[in-house]
């Protein structure tokens, strides 16, 4: 009788559209299983929540310091990244950005690109809510000649409309378009701005001059807590409440049905209510232990595989097909440099250790890296070496306002007697005679990222070897 009454009450709650507290959704799951699921869910969801911080800052928080433009509107940065920009970790300062968060629920968007000089690198990187790159438009992918390109959400069933060069389909209803336009030097900034001003977007109905479909319902975007808006990594079960919100806009991919079934055991799923305040202390600890397990797995992976370059960044960024649902790789990509490019567009080599295997710290050490004559980074577009603070993962403030050294700067750099190029990496000037080749470091931990845009075959297959960063005595 009691069981019948409980079932009746449950049926009434569900029929009224009410959700059970998160604690009720976890009852009955063995602690060890819940811990293992929490670890997987954390690795799975962290990149999405990190992306959401950027989404909220750039497209929702009007008046905020990093606000760019409303949804389905392009916002361009008139200057390159500086240490004051804090919304994206490990930012690229070679290419001024234009960006657009896309709401594809109502209808597709048409992105119009201008003709661009073939000598200048540019592209539009398309990223879904999982942080997977699902397509590119631009110099390598579609050519330097402009055109109209369609971006459609998962529920759009139409054929390629007339006048559209290419169609890209997102797995998720919310997606990100990240434009990069190469800057050749400070005097070139006005040329970049002129190109950025020609990037256009419009709904498909406007492009076809048709009556638009009904507007999608407004979204009540949850505001990340202040501490989660910083670049400090989200490592508490609170992350799961944001994940549940984001999954609402991510139709379950067939290969993840079993994964979502497991996640549901601890209250994770599209639109589910997840409130840490309703959790019993022992279950909250289990979930936190699972998250801590995920962090430890990444730290071990970084130390043994990434820092030693046994696994390179080409493995971490790309489509779902490329990543093969490797959620540790996707997590690592978000931790090290979210929204990184697929290998055919750009590859990244991180300097996290010196040539002897010791962590980099410019507080007491000076470093140098030498590219032998004829062995500069092999890139069809350009290459760059950028300095980052090891604590903040942001650019490093310095008296030269120099955050990188790149191939467009080669005429200003000095080569050695043997024709090689040496870069000096340290907190203090190496001397006026070497200052042209100086990349200023912070007085503490740091790391470098070597980027190759449109890498050549010898960079992709490992024939070209990255030279070590050596300690200068």
Q: Which percent range fits the helix content?
A: 25-40%
How confident overall, as mean pLDDT? 91
CATH topology of the domain at 53-208: Immunoglobulin-like
Instruction: Flag low-confidence runs.
Output: 1-25, 228-233
Termini Cα gap: 82 Å
Radius of gyration equals: 24 Å
Beta-strand share of residues: 15-25%
What is the CATH homology-level superfamily of the domain at 53-208? Domain of unknown function DUF1254
Number of strands: 17
Structural class, please? Answer: alpha+beta
Secondary structure blueprint with pairings:
Layout: H1 2-15, H2 22-26, H3 31-60, E1 75-76, E2 97-103, E3 109-113, E4 122-128, E5 133-138, E6 147-152, E7 166-169, E8 174-181, H4 189-196, E9 200-203, H5 204-208, H6 239-247, H7 257-264, H8 281-306, H9 320-323, H10 327-337, E10 346-351, E11 366-371, E12 379-389, E13 404-406, E14 421-426, E15 438-440, E16 446-455, H11 457-460, E17 470-472
Parallel strand pairs: 6-7, 14-15
Antiparallel strand pairs: 1-2, 2-8, 3-6, 3-9, 4-5, 4-8, 10-16, 11-14, 11-17, 12-13, 12-16
In short:
The chain has eleven helices and 17 strands. The chain is α+β, with helices and mostly antiparallel strands. Among the domains are: 156 residues, Sandwich (Immunoglobulin-like); 128 residues, Jelly Rolls (Sandwich), CATH 2.60.120.
Features of this protein?
473 residues, alpha+beta, Immunoglobulin-like, Jelly Rolls, five-stranded antiparallel β-sheet, four-stranded mixed β-sheet, 17 strands
